[in-house]
Amino acid sequence: MKPPQPQTIPAAVRRIHLIAVCGTAMGALAAMLKESGYLVSGSDHKVYPPISVFLAEKGIAVADGFDPANISDNTDLVVVGNAVSRDNPEVERMLALGVPYCSMPQALNHFFAAGKAPVVVTGTHGKTTTSAMIAWILHAAGLDPTFMIGGILRNFDSNYRLGRGTPIVLEGDEYDTAFFDKGPKFLHYIPQLAVLTSIEFDHADIFRDLDHVKSAFDRLLDQIPPQSTLITYDADPNVASLLAGRRCRIARYGREPDSPWRLGAVSLQPPQTRFEVFKNGQFYGSFETDLPGGHNLLNLLASIAVADHLGIPAATTADAIASFKGAKRRQEIRGCKNGVTVIDDFAHHPTAVRETIQAVRPHYPAGRLIAVFEPRTNSSMRRVFQQAYARAFDGADLICIRQPPLLHKVPADDRFSSRQLVDDLCGRGKAAHFFPDTDAIIAFLACNARPGDAILVMSNGGFDDIHTRLLDAL
Questions:
Q1: pTM of the shown model
Q2: Which domain holds residue 43?
Q3: Could you count the other beta carbons within 10 Å of the beta carbon of residue 109?
Q4: How many Å apart are CA 168 and CA 120, to the nearest integer?
Q5: Residues 208 and 340 grouped into a single domain
Q6: Which of 105, 186, 384, 432 matches a 20 to 30 Å C-alpha distance to 220?
C-alpha cells in the first residue's frame, strides 16, 4: 500500500511537534524553530544527554516515549523524523486527526531556506568538515550565514545558526527522508552552489549497491539549475561518471594539473599544515590549518573554491581557515593523561578509517598510534565491508576491535564479524585484538598504553562514553 503523502505546510503555523526530535538534525531544527518564535514540542524513545540537555536549555519540552496524547487538535504541524515508522502511535494519531505533516528537509526548506542562496555540500565523505569550514568562512567574511550541519562546529559550539545574510549552508545527506518519502534528503534542496566530495557505497540498509548510490546522486545533479555551480573532486571515478551532460556549471578541485582549483606544495609542521592553492593555473594563495591529513586539505580546497565563487577575498579566507577549530568528533583531542592522547573521530566507513589513521599518524611520531574501532552503523555491522576493513588499519601500530553492540538488528547471514577482522589483521602482521565490550577495551589500554601514544577512537556513536572513562583509567 502506498504510504500517505504529506500535505502542504499551512501558511499559518504556531504549534509544531517533532517526532524523534533527538536526532542531530531534528534537534537543530527544533531549536531553530523555537528561536524563530514557534511553540515547539518533541518526543523520542529513550531521551538522554547530551541532546536532552541541549533541548531543555532551549526551552523545548521533550516527552520520553511516543504517546498519541502528544498530538492534539491544537497542533498545527508535525515534523516526522526519518527513523519514525508508519505504525508509530503518534503518526497514527496525526493521521487520524488530519494534522498537516512534513519531513525534516521539507521543514528546513519552508521555514529557513526560502528566499536564501543554498550552498549544499554532498558526498559519501567529508560533508560535515567541508560544510563547517564554508560556514565559518562566510561568517568571518561578514556574510552572516544561516547553517545546519551534521556536527557541532567548535567555533560556534553549535550545529546550526540563524543568520540574516543571504547564504544558507546545508549538509546534503543521501540517506532517506521519511517513511512517506524514501528519496534522499538532499533532493529537497536546490543549490546555488553545490559541492560533491566523493561517491562510494555506504548505507547498506537502504542502498542495494554502488549503482543504487550513484542513481541517487544522479538525481541530485539532474536538478541543479543551469545558473548554479557544482564543485567536484577531480579524482573520484564515480563522480566523474556522472558529470557528462549536466546543465549547471562545473568546477573541479584536487591535484590534477588541469583542474581549475589545485593543491600546490604542502608542508607539514605539526600541529600546523601549510599548503598552496592554484586557481586556473595561477598562484591563488598560501594557507595554514590545524586540521590533519590530506583528505582535510581537499575539504579545505573545496571550501576555498566556494568562498571565491561568492566573492570572498583569498586573504579573508586564509584568516578564517587559520582560525577554524574544526567540528567535534572529527579528529577531536578529548584529553591527554600521563602522556597518552585520546582522540575522538566519527570514522566508520573503511575509507574514512584509513584516511583518518593516515591523517593522525604523522602528528604523533614519538609514540604508537592505537586504533580503537566500534562497528556501529547499519553498513559497518554488515559483512559488505568485511574484507575492506582488513586493509583500512595499516597505519596503526596497535588495533582494538569491539564486538558490534547492535548486531542483533542485522540478519544472521549478513553480519559483520569483529573476530574475523582481528584474525585477518593478525594474518597481515598487525597487532590486533578482539574485545566483547567497552569495559574490556578500557582495561586493556589502561595497562598497555604508554607515554607518547595516541589512542584514536572511531565510532559514529557514543561508544559508552569511552573517551572520558579511558582518560580516567589512564
A1: 0.88
A2: 15-103
A3: 19
A4: 8
A5: no
A6: 384
